[in-house]
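Revision sheet: structure tokens.
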Amino acid sequence: MLSPNALTNAGGCDSIVTVNLTINSTTSSVLFISTCNKYTLNGVTYYYPGKYKQVRRNHRGCDSILTLVLNLDSVDLDIYRNGRIFTSKQAAASYQWLDCSNNMSPVEGATKQTFITPGTGSYAVFVSKGICNENSYCYEVEATGLESKVTESVTLYPNPAGNLVSISFPDRVENASVRLEGMMGQVILDRTGISGDMYTLEIDAMPSGVYFVEVNINGSVTRQKLIKGNY
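Predicted:
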């Protein structure tokens, strides 16, 4: 906009000053975000849902008002541990337990809130709830010295198996027990009072998949993975 103004100079004559005036206006915008746990915008981190305003300079040098409407959800990634039983503290969600020692690969069939670990190792849980999809930290499962000793001496063969699987004991045993469990810890069969240096399980009626064989010899317990195939 041109705005001429007439002034009188030192010689008593008119002095005309023309001002080129441009008035820029403030700009505003609204940003809607839904995310998990926290959100960072322009170096500011928000930890609670709500409506927030940031005032910055736009390319014309005027105020630019940005309104952030933030929806935050969260999941509890802590885990209760009771021996080899892991339970996610987050209820009413979807779960996938992960084997940290095997490049965070999913544990087949382990999709419940509670996971009975197959023995020593490191495990985490992927929790999905609403807009949140998060991994927990990895947690170790430690074996006792007795479990380690028995593990070294008990053998399953063949493994993978089809109709039969034999359990070879290090020496002749008396009153040992053998339990076969599914991935979620459900007991499929339980045999007690076993004597001898070998025991054979009939597994032909079981569907293909991953199972765990738990052997108890005089209070010393070991668990080994058994793969059942269609042979």
